Request: fold
Amino acid sequence: MSATAQIFSARQKIVGVTLALVAAIGFSAKAVMVKLAYVDAVDAITLLALRMAFSLPFFLIVAALENRNSRNEALTFKDKLAVVGLGLVGYYLASYLDFMGLQYISAGLERLILFLYPTMVVLISALVFKQRVGRNILLALLISYAGIALVYMHDMHVLQHDALTGSLLVFGSALAYSVYLVGAGHTIARIGANRFTAYVLTVACIACLVQFAVTHTVTDLHLPLRVYGLGIAMAVFSTVLPTFMLAAAMRRIGSMHTSMIGSVGPVSTILLAYAFLGEQMSLAQIGGSILVLVGVLMISLKKSG
Reply:
């Protein structure tokens, strides 16, 4: 490899690592912004609708640009069904359950539960595709869920009975996203990552707006400017930018390194929640977080190897 090629490769790696890191922090900040918005007594459906309404124009632009690309093949009817179904499950349902759960549990616990999705992908794949689960994977699952139990005990002590409701809702969110990941592989390979992402998120945005239109009235949009500001911030910094940054990072440094850098997400959420929400940082929370990170990385590295 020439010196110029080496320099270019090194720069690409630095850019990839930076993109993956910023994306992980951006996704992590979402939970903190949701909790900050809830201070103004806005409900989950309205807040989710605001996030998706401000995100939708970006995804429509990307979708339009992808449609104009002559190299892209036209979507088949099966592709369209997959996009709609995966968009509804992986982003609409997962986002709705997540926003509902954040009404009851800490931002730190929410991010850790969501971070369990690689373990759920392994379990779903084992059930659906009859894939064997080895001892190392079982150990990783045990470590991960032991960590969640520790952090859950911390939240239960602080929030009492609400912790169970919130944990189950967020667990459902992680499960929905895991189903999406298991089913998305073939469609992504056929139509391309950027086009697929723009399409499924457009579907999810429209579903959230329809849900708001059916369950609420226009007067429910009479909210403080602070809530609108948080909605815009969630759309730009915790939805649109990190979504495409993650894809760009994976192209430069691969899925394994991207997932490893993504493990800073839960830690970032805990630190941001401590700084902006005043959430406690107990030894149980720190210990549980470490266990979850270790378990998930064991599975991610095994899958990537």
Observations:
- Residues 86 and 183 are 7 Å apart (CA to CA).
- Residues 19-304 form one domain.
- The chain has eleven helices and no strands.
- The chain has one domain: 19-304.
